[in-house]
Amino acid sequence: MDMRNIAIIAHVDHGKTTLVDELLKQSGIYRDNETTTERAMDSNDLERERGITIFAKPTSVVWKGTRINIVDTPGHADFGGEVERILSMVDGVVLLVDAAEGPMPQTKFVTSKALALGLRPIVVVNKVDKPDGEPDRALDECFDLFANLEASDEQLDFPNMYASGRSGWADMELDGPRKDLSALFDLILHHVPAPAQISRRDEKFSMLATTLGGDPFLGRLLTGRVETGRLKAGETIKSMTSEGELIESFRVTKIMAFRGLSQTGIDEAEAGDIVSISGMSKATVADTLSDLSITEAIPAQPIDPPTITVTFGINDSPLAGRDGKKVQSRVIRDRLMKEAESNVAIKVSDTPGGEAFEVAGRGELQMGVLIENMRREGFELSISRPQVLFKHVDGKRLEPIEEATIDVDDEYAGAVIEKITGARKGELVEMKQAGAGKTRIVAHVPARGLIGYHGEFLTDTRGTGVLNRVFHDWAPYKGPMPGRRSGVLISMENGLSVSYAIFNLEDRGRFFIGAQEDVYVGMILAEHNRENDLEVNPLKGKKLTNVRASGTDEAVRLTTPITLSLEEAIAYIDDDELVEVTPNAIRMRKRYLDSNERKRYAKSVKG
Fold first, then answer.
1. Mind listing the pLDDT tens digit for each residue in 360-374?
2. 131 to 96, 104, 108, 135, 166: CA distances (angstroms)
3. Domain annotation for the chain: domains and CATH numbers
4. Nearest to 263 by CA among 249, 250, 251, 278
5. Is 54 exposed, middle or buried (CB count within 10 Å of its CB: 0-12, 13-18, 19+)?
6. pTM over 0.85
7. Considering 255, 313, 458, 574, which has the largest number of Cβ atoms within 10 A of its Cβ?
């Protein structure tokens, strides 16, 4: 069967997974009476809850006798490591752009990777039926983006379409018939070349592993595109590192191909196919699987280095072990090493003492997803504030700079620019009207300046602003930055919080906890109204007397506490604080816990 391999790339929420839903439906993979779900490719629980794609996943459809392998990719820059590997498996990309928003930071990031590999894109302007859509402007901005990324003349001569993924249509003209996606299918067959590997099917077998998965019955599964030759189930092959060193020889127990939303066992894989192979015990992502006689490894695409690091440690609070079952540092280490093996954008290293582990990655969201998965698996952890990774070149200290694209209502633009270019030491690159009373601000800001800024940004814009960020470049260190401006209220007792005590402390700050919640010495209870930290007693009840007067026994009404999400809590804490994560709770605390350290800290607070 003739074949095409494509990836669909776009910014967050520009409609990739919804478009794939429609491609699957209109290609006929479903029975007439089969129940279907929205965003079928987002199979992970976290993906469905958050409404974002986290893991790149292949699928395939058949159109006019040609098999089209489609890879749905993540839209957030934190998961860019998934995209960088996947692009080496395909021969073309469909770039999806929102008709109202135009190219956004992640659009620029993934497009630069695709152009560098020589892929010729198809640009699809999506959501053209939105009231504020400007498809012609979005298309012009795409051309400007390609030109800025130094695309070749062939890549600049890209075909374009107008579409509505949710409505299930795509046309070459804006005022087309708007019936279905057949024009997009036909354009893919015409524009995307067949895999060049097809001509090498008579050579010895070789394949580059791009993603690692697992199956309870088959064990490790490595997915990639077969570069040369053929492979049958039961054959013995070997795996090599990128330097050509032998890792292991193994018998292929199963070959799985993507057919619609499921994987199906096949007898033989040929060059150009995207398949999963089982049988190995050590081989991992970026390794070469090949015939026993081949000695040279297939070169793998380099992955952009991580920009932040977070310390994962055991939960040593007084409440440790109540919720989770996996609390030992050995178990935490094994889980992190397993994650680093399959996620090429994460690096794990031990800290002195071996009780904590430094995990380096792309951003706060990537770390938040990893931590959330671990807490659902029964882990208890203590997490530090994210720290930026620096680089030293020719004796100079360089720090990562991020490109922040911000869409805000016109009235809040001044406050946002003041925060970005002031204490956070960003540089304003562009400011323009985005229509509908919105202003678009593009700024280059040190990654340090954006850690913990999102909550403050939402406050400044009354929840209406949208901030997107992506790694831009390395630049000379811009000097120290102020941390969180406000102090915190800290518990000085262990026990259950009392509503009377919290009611009398509400004048001092905004609370993160309510009544009858477990608290302990050092736990952060609230955000202080002032810049200093303050120790308080949340267990202090009302003193009882024999005197009764009108109004003294009225019920206490507490203000609803602030509930921080995992990412918000990690971004909120200061350098001397930790987030305690368990399957049922997210708490913040000071690093100290024993009585001597508490006394020393109390003296420093009073002094």
1. 887 787 888 889 889
2. 18, 19, 25, 11, 15
3. 2-194 (3.40.50.300), 198-290 (2.40.30.10), 391-476 (3.30.70.240), 488-567+590-606 (2.40.50.250)
4. 278
5. buried
6. no
7. 255
